[in-house]
Backbone:
């Protein structure tokens, strides 16, 4: 079918002016934050309701047209890229609150709602949606769910998966399922909801989600600690976790701190220079909690695990300390970073990091490495920066070789080659480093069950 | 194959004296706590390793022999019953700790470990496994996972699902999968772990699990409050939840309290008689928390939502107050109860309870109803007691008619016909009240993917 024929057919189903074919739309809605692939979709559809989405999926099944569900397109694995003549289903106009219930502390929203809007909505109700990350201002809740987004509060609040009480989806076969309908307890067979979470739109399209909210945290307080080694970072983590509840435990290297303070004209948290820094956050609900935090801090100092530290006295200071960690990604984006999103179990982080570090340094002595990440969850972001003199193509080519070896190390540590960024197109060839051949075969068979014609985001995550 | 042939063949695979055919074994391992079906297994196998289990499953595939995975057999939906010539795989001897890691706060155990032993192991490490329920002294962790067990702490700690970091399973095809291997963050395709959780052994057999532990709660304090109506119970819940973190919020009716205090010679929490009672628990970590709790209590009194209350001053008192709730099930077991395990979203509990109550009272005026449950999760246990004069068969026959109508009401409220007890044989015919025809069709197709010969716990949850 030509783009014009698709436009005509889809608009006959969901109404006029709901399909765009112009170059601007094809360009915008064909790519995500990866910017590796050249966008080349056939047409862009803008549904308003679950029924609209269902009509499009049924039409695509009849015509064997590939579909790409499109949220905020902030993904880093090209899960929402349309580079292969697909029909893109844009969820932007499905962004309403469907229902809120204060007793249940739950809200049902359409999948196209921006993450930050959901956070704000929760706040207006005196509640809290705790999944948070740098792209919250653009990403959509449907995309968060389809990629099981993580972020900076996972140690306390878990992943997006942990906040989904119900999903309305249109399967690849064009059937509407209402999965779990907001229930907290419901042991009636396979929990298909969890299959759609993290499926990256390969089984169907999420059109609505019922999200659990929680009470807002109180008096969030931030500490940044200077730590001599990764092993010590783990001791610090263990000491604090055994004495209090943390809402975040992040780390970054001296290299990262130097860059971020220079680029954003930020103050260092203290003068002492250490190879690593831990940032931790907790609810200082009362003086006792604060006393405990200070005691643990002093124990860590006495044990030599911490060399210096800084603690926020108010919200502004807390925000400033967070900036040291949160601005890293943006800071290094100017140096053409090659990004990896790895995880291992928390206890193996130090040896894993050391092994990767040593490998990259020895094999590619000119490459600069910036480490940061969510250490409380075993999630490390390895960023390799392009040497200024090196050509971009040569750099990425070399990095691809780095990946193979880094992923082999990850496999040896029983880790994940994509902790929170998903698979999409970018990690598809590396999936086998984390999932066994048998697992991948079962995944393909499950895909077949929900999407027998293979129209849902084909080529993403799996090749059939 | 005759039982003797099976014994010979399986023992050739996993070693001598690992299969029993005696009447005692067939009787014990053929039934669970439901005691409705007459046990009639063909043979009972006692594997020691995942390899043993795999060998049995591969053998069963070749011979088309039905398998029943068997844990503590404490289920209330006949998910572990073997009444149809099956080979039972008993996990009792696979009960070891495989690995513990203090930094990760995780422990890998074989599936046959008793829940209470896991709780004790955690305690010995200064940690806590929070999933708890009446049968924890007999149930096994593999069975907990296969049925996604809930219990009395779900409001704070969630279901068993929320504590599983990794699973080793043998699929119905006889393949060993290591799912998620203890990682906190791992977004690499469909999370098959969540498919096996709650699958009731119909997709394969869980042989090992990596379980997350957490810090032990501090100074758990219990309040029992006398409440005039279910609507007021919800107001009490909302008031406390908005001000503090609860670890439990249970309820029971005056009828339940009368019975349990009489049967166990327990003291009433206070003299005031109210239609309902709320039991709530929280960590009184410091005086501030206690002050908050007392303030909310007083607000609830002033608003008329609470008429009287009692609070524990020490661990013994806390335990005694818990007894009022926890002994109900055992108390009414002497009166031949017809049990239902229902859930709706929390906010709809009062109208739902009233509608069910009214229906049972009007249609069966002689039946006595005892309500209790986990109100903070929307989970209600409806117990109908046999009138003394009525014959047992007549009673259960009538109750079956009650079920049909109660489940229809549950469906109208978008609730679950099995909140935490699973489906097994007992709820299979009622599955459609909670899951749509499309969902059930997808479930069957998924079963087909993992168990193409239909040997895994056939007839449980689904009929193919």
Residues:
């Amino acid at each position: 079918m030509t783009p014009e024929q698709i436009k005509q057919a889809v608009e006959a189903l969901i109404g006029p002016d709901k399909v765009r074919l112009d170059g601007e739309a094809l360009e915008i809605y064909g790519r995500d934050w990866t910017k590796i692939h050249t966008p080349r979709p056939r047409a862009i559809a803008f549904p308003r309701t679950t029924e609209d989405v269902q009509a499009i999926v049924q039409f695509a099944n009849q015509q064997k047209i590939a579909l790409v569900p499109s949220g905020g397109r902030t993904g880093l694995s090209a899960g929402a890229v349309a580079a292969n003549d697909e029909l893109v289903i844009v969820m932007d106009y499905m962004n309403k609150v469907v229902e809120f219930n204060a007793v249940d502390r739950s809200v049902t929203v359409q999948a196209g709602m921006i993450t930050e809007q959901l956070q704000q909505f929760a706040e207006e109700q005196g509640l809290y949606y705790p999944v948070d990350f740098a792209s919250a201002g653009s990403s959509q809740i449907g995309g968060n769910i389809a990629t099981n987004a993580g972020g900076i509060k996972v140690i306390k609040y878990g992943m997006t998966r942990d906040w989904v009480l119900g999903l309305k989806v249109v399967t690849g076969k064009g059937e509407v399922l209402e999965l779990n309908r907001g229930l907290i307890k419901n042991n009636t067979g396979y929990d298909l909801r969890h299959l759609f979470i993290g499926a990256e739109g390969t089984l169907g399209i999420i059109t609505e989600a019922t999200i659990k909210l929680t009470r807002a945290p109180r008096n969030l307080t931030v500490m940044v600690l200077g730590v001599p080694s990764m092993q010590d970072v783990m001791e610090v983590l263990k000491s604090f976790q055994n004495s209090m509840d943390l809402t975040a435990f992040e780390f970054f290297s001296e290299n990262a701190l130097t860059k971020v303070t220079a680029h954003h004209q930020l103050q260092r948290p203290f003068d002492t220079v250490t190879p690593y820094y831990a940032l931790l956050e907790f609810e200082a609900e009362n003086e006792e909690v604060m006393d405990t935090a200070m005691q643990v801090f002093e124990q860590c100092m006495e044990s030599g695990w911490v060399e210096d530290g800084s603690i926020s006295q108010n919200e502004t200071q807390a925000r400033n300390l967070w900036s040291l960690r949160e601005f890293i990604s943006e800071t290094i984006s100017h140096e053409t970073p090659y990004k990896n999103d790895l995880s291992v179990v928390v206890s193996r982080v130090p040896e894993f990091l050391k092994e990767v570090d040593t490998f990259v340094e020895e094999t590619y002595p000119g490459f600069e490495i910036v480490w940061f990440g969510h250490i409380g969850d075993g999630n490390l972001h390895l960023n390799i920066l392009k040497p200024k003199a090196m050509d971009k193509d040569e750099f990425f080519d070399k990095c691809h070789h780095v990946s193979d070896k880094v992923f082999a190390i990850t496999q040896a540590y029983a880790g994940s080659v994509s902790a929170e960024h998903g698979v999409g197109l970018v990690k598809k060839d590396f999936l086998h480093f984390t999932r066994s051949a048998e697992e991948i075969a079962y995944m393909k068979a499950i895909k077949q069950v929900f999407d027998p014609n293979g129209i849902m985001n084909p080529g993403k995550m799996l090749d059939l």
The first strand of chain A starts at residue 19 and ends at 20. Residues 336-422 of chain A form a domain with the Alpha-Beta Plaits fold (CATH 3.30.70.2740).
